[in-house]
Amino acid sequence: MRTPIIAGNWKLHMNPEQTVEFVKAVSAKLPESSKVESLICAPAVDLDALRKAAEGTNLHVGAENAYFEEEGAFTGETSPKVLKEMGIQYCIIGHSERRGYFHETDEDINKKAKALFANGVTPIICCGESLETREANKQEEWVVSQIKAALKDLSAEQVSSLVIAYEPIWAIGTGKTASSDQAEEMCKTIRETVKDLYNEETAENVRIQYGGSVKPANVKELMAKPNIDGGLVGGASLDPESYLALVNYQD
Ligand SMILES: O=C(CO)COP(=O)(O)O
């Protein structure tokens, strides 16, 4: 059985003090990790505070990005090796904002996935189509091609352990959620792609999140779908009450 994973992606919000306040506000009310994994992915400058504040709680900690090199002359980048040393468990890669504003390619994302695995950090690999691609009804081939490129040369064991986040760009921060049927349809396609590339067991193990205007009001319906194992949540993860409503969607 796949453990559901609800992750906040704070993007460029929150400072270390606010991070500690947030953890204080949520820590006592988080579900058991065996029931739902509660994760916050925070800006690199907040990770030390987040990891320390989350110690001994059911809150898991992730980064929003990392580079594919561990060290060297790469000004401004975040090392996957240092993430590991800091005790960071997850790292988002290939978010559409990174692909769009920072020109990250499928090849970069594949290299980042390998670098994270080399350092024992679990990647959350994002994929998703633009409105233009959906209107042209090309969303499936677009997402399948992103997945194939991101997973290139990864082992079945690695793919079993990672997380894929389907985030249609037209649903991010727009208040326009994909319908639960649209989200399920693509998450199912992603799982079938993993089965074609690897095997049934790997496809059954890989966790697939939906992201794009997930809110307390729609999380339950999304999570009821058989191929949706979690949410990657931007705006609604910044407020403690809203975050708690998301991670406790089973109550
Ligand atoms: O991009 C997202 C999470 O990675 C989704 O953001 P919103 O939940 O704000 O739409």
UniProtKB/TrEMBL annotation:
Localisation per UniProt entry: Cytoplasm
Taxonomy, superkingdom: Bacteria
Predominant cellular place of this UniProt entry's protein: cytoplasm
Pathway: Carbohydrate biosynthesis; gluconeogenesis; Carbohydrate degradation; glycolysis; D-glyceraldehyde 3-phosphate from glycerone phosphate: step 1/1
Signal peptide residue numbers: none
One record GO biological process: glyceraldehyde-3-phosphate biosynthetic process
UniProt-listed Enzyme Commission number(s): 5.3.1.1
Name the UniProt record assigns to this protein: Triosephosphate isomerase
